[in-house]
């Protein structure tokens, strides 16, 4: 789970972002979900239908909600709503990670690493929520009108 640069989820190399997969925050969320998948393979069998399922579901849902937000960029409030869902799922993942730690399934150092990693993801999502305009799809007519207004 290596952190990538870019406070608003933009890629460090400044390449054009064409899909949600190009978003730094999506890449981080996917890496986090895969790491959680690997870690939970070693949880006790009795947790299979409770803690293991919950932590996997919430970590994967962060990625899914970022993807859904990307597809809703035509509508500011829908975009923000889906990002808010991603933020919520990331926070939920932190709660399940804390349960895993308190149950003795994760060492404190690993808990801290995962928790901090998801704090970073949440921070990137919140920055996108607080400044959605650069991410929104704006029709050519609106762009032209704004360009004329600046003159």
Structural account:
It is a single chain. With 151 residues, the chain is mainly α. The chain has a single domain, classed as Up-down Bundle (de novo design (two linked rop proteins)), CATH 1.20.1440.60. Helices cover 68% and strands 0% of the residues. It has helices at 24-40, 48-71, 76-102, 108-130, 140-150. Helix 3 (76-102) runs antiparallel to helix 4. The chain is elongated, with a radius of gyration of 18 Å.
What is Rg? Answer: 18 Å
- How widely separated are the two ends? 46 Å
Query: How many strand segments?
Result: 0
**Which runs of at least 5 residues are low in confidence (pLDDT < 50)?**
2-12
Share of helix, binned:
55-70%
Count of DSSP H/I helices: 5
Total individual domains: 1
Q: Which architecture name does CATH use?
A: Up-down Bundle
The geometry reads as elongated
SSE pattern: HHHHH
Q: What is the CATH C-level name? A: Mainly Alpha
CATH level 4 superfamily: 23S rRNA-intervening sequence
SS strand fraction: under 5%
CATH topology: de novo design (two linked rop proteins)
What is the average of the pLDDT values?
89
For the largest beta-sheet, the strand count, sense and barrel status come to: none
Helix/strand class: mainly alpha
């Amino acid at each position: 789970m290596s952190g990538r640069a870019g406070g608003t989820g933009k890629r460090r190399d400044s390449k054009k972002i064409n899909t949600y997969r190009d978003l730094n925050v999506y890449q981080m969320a996917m890496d986090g979900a895969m790491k959680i998948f690997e870690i939970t393979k070693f949880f006790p069998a009795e947790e299979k239908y409770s803690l293991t399922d919950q932590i996997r579901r919430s970590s994967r849902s962060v990625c899914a909600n970022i993807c859904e937000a990307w597809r809703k960029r035509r509508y500011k409030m829908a975009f923000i709503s889906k990002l808010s869902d991603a933020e919520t799922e990331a926070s939920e993942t932190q709660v399940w990670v804390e349960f895993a730690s308190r149950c003795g399934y994760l060492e404190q150092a690993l808990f801290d690493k995962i928790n901090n990693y998801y704090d970073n993801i949440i921070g990137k999502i919140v920055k996108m929520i607080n400044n959605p305009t650069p991410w929104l799809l704006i029709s050519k007519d609106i762009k032209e009108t704004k360009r004329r207004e600046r003159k």
